[in-house]
Structures are given as structure tokens and as C-alpha cells.
Amino acid sequence: MEKRRKVLYVSYDGLTDPLGQSQILPYLLGLEKKGYDFTVLSFEKKGSFTILEGRILSLLKDTNITWIPKFYTKKPPVFSTLFDLWVMYLTLRKIGPNHDILHARSYLPMLVFQIIQKNQHVLFDMRGLWADERVEGKIWPQKKGLYRMIYRFFLKKESDFIDFTHGIVSLSHAGLKALTERYPTKTFLEKATVIPCCVNTTLFKLLVSSPLTKEALGFPATAKILVHVGSIGTWYRFDREVALYIEMHKKDPNWYFLVLTKDLEQARRTLSEMGVESQKIKTLSAQYAEVPSYLSLADLSVFFIEPSFSKQASFPVKMAESMAMGVPMVTNEGTGDVAEILRDSHAGVALPSLSDKDLEQFDFSVLHFDRAKIQAYAQTMFSVERGVEKYDEIYRRMKEIQ
Question: Over the stretch 332-345, which tens digit does the pLDDT of each residue have?
Fold first, then answer.
């Protein structure tokens, strides 16, 4: 019988975060069943931790997963992160040597792994272009000298991480291409793997009948529903989504707009400023487990993201969730592999731009989608099981590296 390998998994995101529940725990639970013992160090937001600690512990009960939660600190900027890194270092210095694989989810854990690594194999699960995301998202404003220095530091470390690690995980092929263009003299593609965000296909699935009705939303039974799910801030161009809805409504007054977001005040303000008929719109906040019921009523899903350098390495999980429900979508080019995936799957349209002209030319009435085929594509490409298989392959491949 093959000996179980010990993996030290470190994430600056918490397991009690929505992202931790959807994009970390499913992989850990699947890999544990394949013969890996995990020690997981994560940094939790106190509010989420208080509510969900018991739920996470119940999921981990009777598994070979040991969870070490620490609290995430947010203020003051920079110094709070340095404090968290110090906590991370003190914790990992003690337990690191007892593991075969060091798995870093994003950049900050890699800083510590560079210090504590002895003979273990290291996986740089970089996700996206983290430093560039923080600059483009105005989290590190480059007008300030301190943030310019931090950005340059992490670009240098990104280069070091690529050389240091035994494996790299990217969310998109476009992200890897951006890295090769940034580091043309490095050869790292042979140790790189693309693993897009997974979707819980047990929760997000094509429903024969929905527990919700269109009438319950205040829409007529014959309504065609355009849906937005999730955040509308930072990267998302919700204003252009509203503009698209206005154009669709001009062509067919039977279109209604359902907006599921925590940013209700901002959403309602944008809708009001753009003069959308309130009786045609429903804005509400939904729990993660409720989203499939609402998606099941949708005829089309929309998300527009501002194109940027860092977004080449992104993968919007909402796309996988919509596809798993068989819901076609309209988005824009410039985010990860989104345009290529939509072309391959025939699951929607990626507009060339967010210009008035491209929004006006979009005509849903001439498009035809097979919801069952869209769902089948998502189940094949974005399932947790496929992601688990890919991580297992990486772990096994690293085992062969001397």
C-alpha cells in the first residue's frame, strides 16, 4: 500500500470565506481521499469564523486534514500584512519540516516557504497575477512611493518564485502566456498546469423544476430574465451591463433584469441613475446555496469585466456556475480564457468591447443555445473531480523530482 504523503497547505484566504468554501475545501477533501494528509494554515476573518467555524470543523471531522486557523488583520495597511506574515512564519517554522509537499495558495505563503523549505517539494498555486491585480485595482496606488516599492518587490519575488518552485498552477492559459512574455528568458511551462476555478456540480446543476417561480420575483411567467450574480464593484462594469439590458429591452420589452449581489445600494443607485424601469428590475442579496434556484429562472447571464493585464490570468467562477446550470451568457473579451471557452462550448457570446456599438449589435433573438450541452461541458471541464485529478497529477509528478 502506498504511503500517505503529508502536504502543508497555506492560504491567506480563510476556509470560512465564500472562496474558501467553494475553491479550497472541495479540493482538499477530494485529495485527502486520494492518500494525502493535510495540515492547513489559513487566515480567517473574525465575523465569518464566528459563524462558520463549526460547519468547517464538521466537514473536516474523520478526515486526515488538520486545520490551523489564524486571524486575518486588515489595519493598518501594510503593517497588518507584515504582522500576518510574521505569524505565518512562526507557525510554519515549527511544522514545515514534517511535510513532503509545501502548497502555497498565491504569493504571500511563497515568501515564507522560501525561508523554511528544506528538502520538500513546493507548489506555487499562483492563481492570478496578484501584484498586478493590486495595482490595477487601486489597492496599491502607484502615486505613493511605498506602494511603488512594494509592487517592485513582488515583481522581483514573482520571478524568484518561478525559479524556486517545483510546480506552478495558473487559472488560465492566457495568464501563463502573459508570464512568458514578462519573463521571455525563463523556461517554466513544463512545470506549469492550468486549473480553472471549480464548480460544485451537485449544487449547481440543470434543474427539471425550480423551487422558485418568476411570479415570486414579481415578473410575469412569460418574462425573459437577464441575470447578474455577484459583486458589481472594482473590476465589474455593471453600468455597461445595465446599458446592455436597456438595448435588449428596446428590442424586446419582455426582458427583465435580476441582480443578485451584496452591493445592493450601489446596484440600485446605478439603475436609478440610468433610468431603468423599476418594475422590470429585481435586486436582492442571496446566500450562496440559494443562487442555483435563481439561476434556474434565467434565460441569459451577464458579467462585464474591465480588461487589464492582470485579468488575463483570471477565471470568473460565476461563468462556471452559470454553465453548470445550463445558462448561456454574454460577457466581453479580455478576461482569461473566457472568449475561447465560450467559443468551444457554444455557451455564449464574448463581445469585442463594451462600446455602445457592440452593445447595440448584440441580438439574443438570433442566438440558439443547447442548455444540456452547456451543462455537460461544465461538468467535464470545471468539476471538482477534474481539479482533484489535476492536483493529484502535480503532486505525483513532483514526487519524481529529485
Answer: 999 999 999 999 99
154 and 273 both lie in a single domain: no
Question: 222 with 192, same domain?
Answer: no
Cell of 202: 451537485
Q: Which three cell numbers stand for residue 387?
A: 481539479
Contact 106, 126 (CB under 8 A): yes
**Cell 472541495, residue?**
26
The per-residue pLDDT for range 66-90, each reduced to its tens digit, is 999 999 999 999 999 999 999 999 9
Place of cell 474558501: 20
How many domains would you assign to the chain?
2
**Residue 14: which residues within 8 A CB-CB, separation 6 or more?**
20, 42, 43, 44, 45, 48, 49, 69, 72
- pLDDT tens digits for 181-219? 999 999 999 999 999 999 988 889 887 667 789 999 999
* Total-model pTM: 0.92
Distance CA 311, CA 129 (A): 8
Task: Write 100-103 long-range contacts (CB < 8 A, 24+).
Answer: 100/5, 100/6, 100/7, 100/399, 101/5, 101/6, 101/7, 101/8, 101/395, 101/398, 102/7, 102/8, 102/10, 103/7, 103/8, 103/9, 103/10
C-alpha cell at 395: 503532486
The yes-or-no verdict on residue 168 having pLDDT over 70 is yes
What is the domain extent for residue 69?
A: 5-198+383-399
- Show the cell assigned to 181: 512574455
- Whether 354 and 273 map to the same domain: the answer is yes
